[in-house]
Design a protein that fits this description.
- There is one protein chain.
- The chain is mainly β.
- The protein folds into five domains: 95 residues, Immunoglobulins (Immunoglobulin-like, Sandwich); 107 residues, Immunoglobulin-like; 85 residues, Immunoglobulins (Immunoglobulin-like); 91 residues, Immunoglobulin-like; 101 residues, Immunoglobulin-like (Sandwich).
- The strands form eleven sheets. Strands 37, 40, 41, 43, 44 and 45 form a six-stranded mixed sheet that branches. Strands 2-9-8-5-6 form a five-stranded mixed sheet, with no helix packed on it.
- It is extended and about 100 Å long.
- The two termini are 39 Å apart.
Length: 526
Amino acid sequence: MRRTLLGLLGVLMAVSLAAPSAHADTTKIRTWIRFTPGVYLTYDRTATVTGTVGTYLPKGGGAPLADQTVLINCSNGGCPFHEVTTDAAGNFTVEVHGDQGIDVTAQVSDTDALEESIATTWIEPKTFAWLEASFSPAAIPPSRTTTLSGRLRYLGRDEVTWKPLPGRTIHIEGAGISTEATTGADGSFSKKVTFPKMPAPAFPMSSVPVEFWWTPTTTIDKTFFDRDATMSADVYPAKVTSIVDFGGLLNPSGTVTLKGGVAGEVNKLPLKIQYSKDGSTNWTDLRTIQAQGPFSTTFTPPAVPAYYRAQIVTADNYLGSTSRVVKVGTSVTSVGGFTASVNANHVATVRGTVGPSGLKVPVRIEYSSNGKTGWHTAKVLTAGGAFSTTLKTPLNTGYYRAEILSAKYYKGSTSRVVKAGRTPTRIAGVKVSATRVKKNTYFTIKGTLQRYLSGWKGFKGQRVRLVFHIKGSKALHLYARPLTGTGGKFTAKIKATREAYWTTTYLGATGYYAYNSPKYIRVTLR
């Protein structure tokens, strides 16, 4: 699980796992911990996390808890295990550092007067990058050469100061150029470029944007910046048109949809839709639409199949162009990237992608006990493009597929068959190095986590839980979460501070059942 309830630094942190006894002391005061939301770990690798500790009042509401010790622990080395004390308003502050997400856990320990409370907040690495760019001059001179410059910065921890991002590659593309520049120590960049000769007699004062962008590529940059930094700067070449991304699709209803885009900084202009039966001769005007940028048109086709193209006729202030030719006939469907997984609640999640793009069709989710015969329908949904749906698993372990049935205007298809279910697990060979030890000395617990795959085999890379309860109490406490290694083996070193009963558990994972050991091992002091 991505977020860790309590990290381990060899320190005992107790978490009550059992329901309170019917004879529990009801005079204790209930406490609560709330973190302030909206805190992110910036590219400065640091963040200030704040929270409040309070108590529930007998008649409702709450009150801050001042001068209260709070145990703090962070995942991924974000902070050492330490204590902080709340101020008069019940507030506390934690400084975290790191280059990846951090779980910050705060705990008020159980005392004679207070009930224990625990809260965890996820500090996500997130920073805003800002890209500036411009041309000088912006209007292209007769030499068609100009200088572009800009700067790449990020917003610092104080959310006021912008700091440079040196050594990053800035991509520049548009108006016939495609190049790159690298930011310097102050985050700035500069590049002299020459535009190609424009196929027009003059440069009307209608701007064309040139796109600048920086894409995070290193692991650190991808962690802190979740999107590209983009910018557009205008130049003034002639108005040259082109039709891009032209394509067509026969819809399940029998109509045809054609889509594309008019490139170039132009106002709305007439766009002719033409068709031909052979794709090369006898082109016939079908309709004319007004287009600027992306366009789409739907109509009843004159024939199936047929060939289509879009055409802009040259006018006084722009050059015309013709799109590529596309054939539109019966669509051949596909279901790609099909997957299935089962969670701890026996709910299956199936995902896939319906093709071709833009086609929405009924998709039938089916299951089988052997993956070959006896297929049954589990669910039917309508999907176009990527889809995801959930269903209650009909079998502990089963095979799944997605199927599109053929219809009049498209051909059906079937996805690959995938197996999904939950595999049993167990913890075997749990032993302690000694059952009677001196106080404040150490002993070890060892064991093996196994999963059943045509026999019991070691299960590597999982977290098992080492828990204990003291004599005379049923409350379970978490001591450690050792990671299983080769062969599923795990070891935990324990400091003997009191007589206790120890056992191991495994909470399970996607595709695996949880396992709870019924056996406790008593370790006494001498």
